[in-house]
């Protein structure tokens, strides 16, 4: 080898194994379905999706739809879950319940709705808004700013 | 930050405290004695799958609560307590010490070889311009000799950091839920002590390991993510 080693001769300098967690691989794939991105790509099917019971929540700080973009003053907490054959992304204070056949589609629909609602309430005169609409108008005007 | 504060939107999915010791065959032979003592609260017995890379004796049995929120794992060389619905530090520590005491009354551990505190956080995110919005979640500065070197499609980092005689392992990884395709950041922290350990000091080891991991977590997350965790969201 003339002093040079092949890659195969090297082994990992991994320290002591980690404190054992309850799952067999990454965090409890059996219970909650989380797995390494590399391992699971493109494996989803409807049967697996039916198993989803829990709602997940995540923060959104930016809303985009095409070339339109809104920033949030506080993060929007969205709930993500599956209902029958559709994925749902919702936020109650903004009165938005968006669906899609994939999570990506549902998230995009959610963002489209936010921007549509924001534009609608921005252009709605107070004189034409009912009690509920006034409340939402206030919510949208205080929650977002355009970049 | 008070030790016992639990965020309303906490990303914490699992906390484990583990004690390792030199292999004791008695743990296998008298597993039933230990189980009898904890069966009322942890009635479900879960046995390990066949794993060709791990000898059966080193694979842990699990004794778990009916609702799966917490449990105990034991093998020939270890015992651990885990919680999936973290009740706060004080309650977790108290229950861990209670379980360890029962275990020690049966198996009489004198010397222990390692303690580990593991703190597993999963932080779901939505991509921004098709990259992970890492800077919204974590104070993590990665400088590579590239333009836009702080934009990542995916991330997979594992660091082994010596802290005096102890070892702190940090794993940051982009993961995905295989069922619903929701993406998330994994922030997995493991603080272990390996030298001159005594079973009677387990309470102090929990305190020290938890304190370090919690402080690290607080410094690691951004203020805007902390705002979300506190429930300050729309």
Q: What's a concise summary of this model?
A:
Chain A has 147 residues and is of the alpha+beta class. Helices cover 32% and strands 29% of the residues of chain A.
Could you explain the architecture of this structure?
The complex is a heterodimer of chains A (147) and B (234). Chain A folds into two domains: 18-51, no CATH class; 55-146, no CATH class. In chain A, 32% of the residues lie in helices and 29% in strands. Chain A contains five helices and six strands; from the N terminus they run αβααββββααβ. In chain A, strands 2, 3, 4, 5 and 6 form a five-stranded antiparallel sheet that branches. In chain A, a hairpin with a 2-residue loop joins β3 and β4. The termini of chain A are far apart. In chain A, 24% of the residues are buried. By secondary structure, chain B is an alpha+beta fold. Chain B has a single domain, classed as TATA-Binding Protein, CATH 3.30.310. In chain B, β9 and β10 (183-193) form a beta hairpin. In chain B, α2 runs antiparallel to α3.
């Amino acid at each position: 080898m003339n002093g040079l080693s092949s890659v195969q001769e090297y082994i990992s300098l991994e320290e002591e194994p980690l404190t054992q967690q309850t799952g067999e691989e990454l965090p409890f794939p059996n219970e909650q379905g989380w797995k390494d991105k590399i391992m699971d790509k493109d494996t989803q099917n409807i049967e697996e999706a039916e198993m989803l019971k829990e709602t997940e929540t995540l923060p959104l700080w930016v809303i985009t739809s095409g070339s339109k973009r809104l920033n949030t003053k506080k993060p929007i907490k969205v709930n993500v879950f599956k209902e029958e054959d559709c994925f749902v992304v919702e936020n109650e204070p903004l009165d938005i319940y968006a669906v899609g056949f994939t999570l990506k589609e549902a998230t995009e629909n959610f963002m489209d709705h936010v921007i549509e609602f924001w534009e609608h309430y921005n252009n709605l005169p107070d004189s034409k808004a009912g009690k509920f609409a006034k409340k939402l108008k206030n919510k949208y005007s205080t929650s977002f700013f355009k970049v | 930050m008070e030790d016992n504060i639990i965020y309303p939107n906490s990303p914490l999915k699992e906390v484990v405290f583990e004690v390792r010791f030199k292999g004791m065959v008695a743990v296998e032979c008298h597993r039933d004695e230990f189980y009898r003592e904890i069966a009322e609260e942890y009635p479900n017995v879960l046995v390990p799958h066949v794993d060709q890379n791990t000898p059966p004796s080193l694979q842990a049995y699990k004794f778990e609560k009916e609702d799966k929120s917490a449990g105990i794992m034991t093998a020939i060389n270890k015992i651990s307590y885990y919680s999936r619905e973290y009740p706060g530090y004080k309650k977790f520590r108290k229950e861990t010490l209670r379980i360890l005491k029962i275990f020690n009354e049966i198996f009489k551990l004198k010397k222990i070889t390692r303690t580990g505190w593991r703190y597993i956080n999963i932080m779901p995110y939505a991509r921004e311009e098709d990259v992970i919005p890492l800077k919204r979640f974590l104070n993590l500065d990665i400088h590579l000799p590239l333009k836009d070197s702080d934009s990542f499609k995916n991330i997979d980092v594992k660091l082994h950091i010596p802290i005096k005689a102890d070892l702190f392992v940090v794993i940051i990884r982009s993961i995905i839920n295989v069922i619903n395709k929701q993406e998330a950041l994994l922030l997995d922290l493991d603080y272990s002590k390996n030298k001159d350990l005594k079973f009677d000091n387990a309470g102090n080891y929990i305190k020290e390991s938890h304190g370090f991991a919690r402080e690290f977590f607080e410094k690691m997350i951004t203020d805007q993510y902390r705002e979300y965790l506190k429930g300050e969201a729309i």
